[in-house]
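Design request, tokens follow.
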């Protein structure tokens, strides 16, 4: 897995119970979605193995590139040698490779990297990215999340998660509001909460507030804490998500909720639409159109816990035996 022209990284040591906690360096780039992916895997691993997790924020990109070329990583000089180096986000790739060259360990990229996958010891990638199968590639249904399956879902509580225009989807505020109005009318006894995302236009937020007429709470994305969504997903009996927000679809499924998809027109086929199509084909989510025709929202029959599945594979199949 070494870069061309650079020395191979030191191999991960064969560890035993007496070796103590597995040392993990977690690289972050400051983006909440990416941090949730790496935390999701590490928390799941922590349920299986004792861990010593060291946090490293994104360094200056020039310093990271220089460190990779020179085989130096001074920012980690005070830390124990890593056995695993984990990160999500393109900005973490060069720093993780630099850390491995300087200090050893195995690098896990929690996304399809912009660099050749063979430079990484393991790439955990969504199926819809269509990465060529390889021994160092582990496919998942969507990105990893921190959300855990819940048994506390309440049919009297509902959650609506609204995205916004994107490279993959157009945006029709009128269509979206009409769908939500219909849901309110058919589920009049449900206590609804609506939340938005960074992509939600201000006009759509105003439209949602006007539409609810006091029948639902509208909470903008910048008014919630990191734990707000997991706690809401753990209680909601029904969760509706706009089709552009596939990551939130996977989070709702991970909580074990019954998930409906609010229809947003796609601009063209893409990895986002492929991922959603796969969930529809497997009956894991229900479209608004099918719901209108009488199909009920259904919770996943089996636990949808991709972080846990990935962690079990790493701990039992991929890591040196402990």
């Amino acid at each position: 897995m070494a870069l061309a022209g650079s020395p191979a990284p030191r191999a991960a040591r064969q560890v035993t119970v007496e070796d103590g906690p597995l040392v993990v360096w977690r690289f972050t780039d400051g983006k909440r979605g990416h941090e949730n992916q790496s935390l999701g895997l590490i928390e799941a691993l922590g349920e299986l193995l004792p861990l010593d997790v060291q946090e490293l924020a994104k360094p200056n990109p020039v310093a990271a590139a220089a460190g990779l070329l020179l085989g130096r990583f001074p920012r980690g000089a005070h830390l124990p040698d890593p056995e695993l180096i984990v990160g999500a986000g393109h900005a973490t790739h060069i720093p993780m490779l630099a850390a491995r060259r300087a200090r050893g360990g195995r690098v896990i990229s929690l996304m399809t990297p912009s660099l050749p996958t063979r430079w990484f010891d393991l790439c955990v990638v969504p199926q819809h990215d269509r990465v060529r199968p390889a021994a160092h590639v582990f496919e998942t249904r969507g990105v990893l999340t921190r959300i855990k399956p819940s048994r506390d879902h309440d049919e009297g509580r509902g959650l609506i998660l609204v995205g916004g225009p994107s490279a993959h989807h157009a945006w029709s505020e009128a269509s979206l509001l009409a769908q939500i109005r219909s849901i309110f009318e058919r589920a009049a006894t449900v206590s609804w909460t609506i939340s938005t995302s960074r992509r939600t236009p201000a006009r759509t937020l105003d439209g949602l507030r006007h539409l609810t007429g006091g029948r639902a709470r509208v909470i903008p994305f910048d008014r919630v804490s990191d734990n707000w969504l997991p706690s809401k997903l753990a209680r909601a009996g029904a969760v509706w998500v706009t089709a552009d927000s596939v990551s939130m679809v996977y989070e709702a499924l991970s909580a074990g909720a019954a998930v409906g998809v609010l229809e947003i027109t796609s601009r063209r086929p893409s990895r986002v639409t492929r991922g959603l199509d796969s969930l529809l084909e497997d009956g894991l989510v229900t479209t608004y159109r099918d719901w209108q025709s009488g199909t009920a929202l259904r919770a996943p029959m089996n636990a949808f816990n991709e972080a846990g599945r990935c962690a079990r594979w790493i701990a039992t199949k991929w890591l040196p035996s402990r």
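Comment from the thread starter after seeing the answer: thanks! The two ends are 23 Å apart (CA to CA).
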